[in-house]
Amino acid sequence: MCGIVGYIGGRDVVPVLLGGLSKLEYRGYDSAGIAVVKSGRLEIHKTKGRLSKLQDILKGFAASDTVGIGHTRWATHGEPSYENSHPHANCAGDIAVVHNGIIENYMKLKQWLIEQGAKFISQTDTEVVAHLINHFYVGDLLDAVTKAVAHLEGSYALGVVSDKHPDTLIAARKDSPLVVGIGDGENLIASDIPALLEYTRDVYFLNDKEIAVLGKDAITIYDEYGQTQQRESYHVEWDVSQAEKGGYEHFMIKEIHEEPRVMADTFFPRYRDGMIDLCEIGIDKQTVENTKKINIIACGTAYHAGMVGKYIIEELARIPVEVEVASEFRYRQPIIDPGQLVIIISQSGETADTLAAMREAKKRGAKIVAVVNVVGSTISREADAVLYTHAGPEIAVASTKAYNTQLMAIYMIALELARLSDTIDAAEYTRLVIGLSSVPALMNDILKTKEQLQKFACCNFSQSSVFFIGRGLDYVLSMEASLKLKEISYIHSEAYAAGELKHGTIALIEEGTLVVAIATQQKLLEKTVSNIKEVKARGARVLAVCFEGCGVPDDVADETVYLPKVDDVFAPLLAVTPMQLFAYYMAVEKGCDVDKPRNLAKSVTVE
Ligand code: AGP
Predict the structure, then answer these.
(1) How far is the CA of 448 from the centre of ligand 1 (A)?
(2) pLDDT for residue 237 is more than 90
(3) How far apart are CA 440 and CA 268, in angstroms?
(4) What distance, in Å, lies between the first and last C-alpha atoms of the chain?
(5) Ligand 1 site, residue 305, Cβ cutoff 6 A
(6) For ligand 1, what atom is nearest to the CA of residue 600?
(7) Residue 346's Cα: distance from chain center in Å?
(8) 48-62, 73-87, 471-485: which range is least confident on average?
(9) Using one digit for the tens of pLDDT, what is the confidence trace for 201-221?
């Protein structure tokens, strides 16, 4: 996934583009570039490596015109290199393009363009778009872009400029996010809202296959047939500071510290008169009666939230739940009953696999409820109903606060389903809702474990492999704990059902192997303690996570993190944060780039 920006207006365009790209670097950071018009000529400046390298190259550079586009890349086609970095241009060098997405038919188009005389210098799919626009260009840039994108298969968010049209910036999108910023005497485009907030809070969200033509004082949106489209603008409420580090060393640790607030922001607006009000998702008794099975579909961390959802929905509402990674669901001819509930979970609302899986489920007649963080994202706009998490912008590539708010949302849905299914009585419903309402305040106590975890990480960051074990809800939570460690510290890790270890994997436990045992489920505690003793007997070092006063005996684990006691069913909401802190400090001790881990991107908008 990549980040694109574009600007047209009265400012010097170079700092605007570089500033916008700095807000999007979490989307991809293996190369960066800009294209601007200077003295009537299009100039492209780009480099392999981080945005800071491009900023050094452009120190003191000023464009004479005030239109341009910029790009920060997460390589899909062609390794990170100068030639493969964006923007890409036509042979004449007077049309430039930046792109986020994948053009699936680019090889066929490239072959045809070469036969028409085009000379390619990169291995990218994007360069095809520049030459295709050139092919159709006979003086009308909008017409050329419209004809070019009609030939594209796959996903794209495009920014297009030309020195033959210095008063125009064109944007087009299909399946990749693109937001249009509405300024005063200036207008912008970007892959995500943080890149626009310095200039405007008012935006248009482009629909698939739409094309926007931006001038300094006007924005026109067209559909794929050239018909102008009316569009309501959206006013962004959250502020730039939420998209800044705010004095923390990394976005990730800042976002972990935001968890008490954002979990409260997700819960309390929907909590009134002792009830949870989910009218926004329109689940009624009829939906529940139609639903013999619920599918939860997501990727990565969102999938792990779905796994917790399975356990709590089945426990509370007694409805069978099937959880699946979107990349599998979309290709396996899934069985979905018309009218049944399908829950889609996605922080960005743009993950390609999750979007495609949702469309597959919709084709089969499912009622789609999406749990999404980014307002106006594609998934949020195509779902039948949306339950927005209020985590605010999550900049760190490794998801933390968004996962916590996804859990809050899933718990609310589970309680609503249980209430509508009458599987819990009014007293139990009230008790559980009050229990859930107490969680955000308890998170402040959880954050106090950070010193303990930092010390433990100092002594254990050289581990080559870590096992996370647990039973029941502790097991599904350990999946997220394991992913967090892997993706930011690059330490291999595995989440394992504690009861399953003895069926083979315990052979890997040897002297000094680090095992993290999550042991909050009281009815399974004895079994989990036995599993801890089993691995200890084979030389493992054990970090245990349990409730204070009813957890793992002091002499069992090498280190124990105690959580304030809540009902077992809410344990994941509390226990995940120490695991996020553990992963964070392990990565910091290893000197890893915590916010922008290698090979990753914040939202995987490509397959
Ligand atoms: C989260 O730590 C990961 N970076 C990744 O697994 C992420 O959760 C996954 O790509 C899904 O993203 P989404 O929630 O935006 O759909």
Answers:
(1) 26
(2) no
(3) 10
(4) 10
(5) no
(6) 4
(7) 7
(8) 73-87
(9) 999 999 999 999 999 999 999
Residue 21 is encoded by which pair of tokens? 């790209």
Closest to 241 (Cα-Cα) out of 225, 232, 254: 254
Report the percentage of the chain scoring pLDDT > 70: 98
Supply the pLDDT for residue 603.
Answer: 78
Active site residues: 2, 602
pLDDT tens digits along 552-572: 888 899 999 999 999 999 999
Cβ of residue 399 lying under 6 Å from some atom of ligand 1 = yes
Task: From 473, 447, 482, select the one nearest 583 (Cα to Cα).
Answer: 482
Average pLDDT, the chain: 93
Among protein residues, the one with the nearest Cα to ligand 1's atom 5 is 300
Instruction: Count other C-beta atoms under 10 Å from residue 58's C-beta.
Output: 18
* pTM over cut 0.85: no
Residue 119: exposure state from Cβ atoms within 10 A (0-12, 13-18, ≥19):
exposed
Indicate if ligand 1 lies below 6 Å from the C-beta of 597. no
- Sign of torsion, CA 139 142 147 151? positive
pLDDT confidence of residue 2: 77
526: helix, strand or coil = helix
CA of 282 from ligand 1 middle (Å) equals 26
For residue 360, give the nearest of 396, 395, 324, 386 by alpha carbon. 324
Ligand 1 centroid to Cα of residue 278, in Å, is 25
Say if residue 69's pLDDT is above 90: yes
Compute φ and ψ for 582, nearest 5 degrees: -60, -50
H helices of 26-76, in order, are 51-57
Radius of gyration of the chain (CA): 25
Q: Which residues contact 149 (CB under 8 A, 6 or more apart)?
A: 129, 156, 158, 172, 174, 209, 211, 224
User: What is the average per-residue pLDDT within 192-200?
Assistant: 91
What single letter denotes the amino acid at residue 391? Answer: A
Q: 144 with 120: CB under 8 angstroms?
A: no
Contacts of 132 (CB under 8 A, 6+ apart): 109, 113, 148, 151, 152
Cα 147 to Cα 137: distance, rounded to the nearest angstrom: 9
